[in-house]
Structures are given as C-alpha cells and as structure tokens.
Inverse folding.
C-alpha cells in the first residue's frame, strides 16, 4: 500500500459559518497581547485546525483588499479551540493602526487516488467574515498625503485619543471630513445628532448645524451598527487642531481629533 501525504486545500460545497467574537468588528484594543475568540465548528474528524490570519489595513484600503493583498502580520494554526491569547513571540501591533483578521477551519482527510494509493488533503469546513480592530497607545500623528480618499472615514471613539487625522480639501475645494462611529441600535435619525467642534488651541467649543452632515455614499448602517457620515467644515482654519464631538440621542459622546492642511 502506498501513501502520498499532501496538503491540498479542498473546498467543500457546504461550509459552516464562524463568528468572530472578540475583538468585535471596529473595536479598539488597549493591551499588547489581546484575546482572540471565535465560534467553533463541528466535524467527525478528531482534529479541527483553526487558522487565524491578521493583516494591517492601509489608508484608503478595504478590509477585503487588505486580507487578499497584504503580507500577514500573524498567520498560525491552532487545534480544536476557539480562543487564543496573542503570543508574546508574535510581532507587536503598531500604535494607532487598523488591522483586519479572519479565521478558517480545516480538517485532514485521506482520499484514495488509485489502487492502493492514498493522499491526505486539507478540507476547508468553515470560514468567518473579515473583522477589523484598531490599536490604541496613540502618541503619534499620522498624515494623509494629498486629498483624503473618498472612502476614508476617521473612527470616532468614546475614549479620548492623542491621534490626529490630517485632511486636505476635497476635489470640490471644500473642507469635508468623513467619520464613522458604532451605535448598537437602529432607526437612527442623523438630524438628531448634536455636532460640536472643539478648538484644541484654546479649548473653545462651538456647535455645528446637523444640516452640515452629508450622506457618505456607503450604507449609513451595516450589520455591525457602524454609521458613516461626511461633515462640511469649510469655515474652519488650516493648521489648527480640532476635536469633533458627536452626541447621540442616548447621550453617548464619540470623539476624534483632526486638522486641515494645505498640500505643498
């Protein structure tokens, strides 16, 4: 009897769904070695291998494009588990960055390929959607060179961060910022949002009319409760640091710092 041991990914017709639990999509992590957890799948095989892959998401890039094209920061297999602690030997996450992650479940099966000949194949039995998370410890500034990409939205958080987003005018010569925040209930009327701008040079706070909110050109709410909006702030000065503060109907306050600059 001849055995050929090969690792050949083989997709099954029906795959099980894996749900990513922590960090949740659009979450911010505050520790160097976070826990990653997900739901497990079932199989008659004695061992199920869970591959967890993490990539950095670059500015203006979608999480799907990042997962397909970027070099993995972390890519390892674990047996029969739905939880890992990010290992100390793995590359550290950079501060103030966005990362995407997904999980895929596989088993090994022996398949006959000829008389007395067998091969071991890797069969995918479950996959997850792609989720993103952000790293904290923001003690640096990041500049977006040139006009901000149309699909870029700065992330608002309840916690105050030192990270500053730099924007230039858009193609219509307007000072417009895109932002997103998580609100875990539906039927949101964006005209009810309270919009305020804090001048960080003197800490003065001014109110902006909600009529300055502009539809973002992407779904304003997806299944994770992430809302995307644009805000016209053409009256603001260049080279002055500001903080956007959004108050929802539940009195939750979301914040992010930004600044307009003139490209050289």
């Amino acid at each position: 009897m001849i055995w050929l041991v090969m690792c050949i990914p083989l997709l099954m017709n029906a795959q099980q769904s894996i749900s990513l639990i922590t960090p949740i999509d659009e979450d911010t992590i505050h520790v160097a070695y976070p826990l990653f957890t997900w739901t497990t799948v079932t199989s008659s095989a004695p061992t199920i291998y869970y591959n967890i892959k993490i990539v950095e998401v670059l500015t203006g890039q979608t999480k799907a494009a990042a997962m397909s094209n970027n070099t993995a920061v972390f890519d390892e297999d674990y047996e029969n588990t739905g939880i890992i602690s990010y290992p100390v030997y793995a590359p550290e996450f950079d501060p103030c960055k966005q990362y995407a992650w997904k999980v895929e479940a596989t088993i090994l099966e022996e398949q006959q390929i000829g008389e007395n000949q067998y091969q071991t194949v890797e069969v995918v039995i479950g996959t997850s959607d792609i989720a993103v998370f952000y790293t904290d410890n923001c003690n640096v500034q990041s500049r977006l060179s040139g006009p901000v990409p149309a699909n870029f939205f700065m992330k608002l958080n309840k916690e105050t961060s030192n990270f500053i987003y730099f924007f230039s005018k858009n193609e219509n010569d307007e000072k417009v910022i895109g932002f997103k925040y998580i609100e875990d209930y539906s039927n949101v009327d964006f005209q009810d949002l309270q919009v305020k701008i804090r001048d960080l040079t003197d800490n003065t706070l001014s109110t902006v009319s909600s009529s300055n909110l502009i539809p973002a050109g992407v779904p304003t709410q997806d299944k994770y409760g992430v809302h995307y909006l644009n805000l016209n702030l053409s009256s603001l000065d260049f080279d002055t640091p500001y903080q956007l503060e959004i108050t929802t109907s539940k009195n939750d306050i979301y914040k992010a710092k930004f600044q307009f600059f003139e490209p050289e």
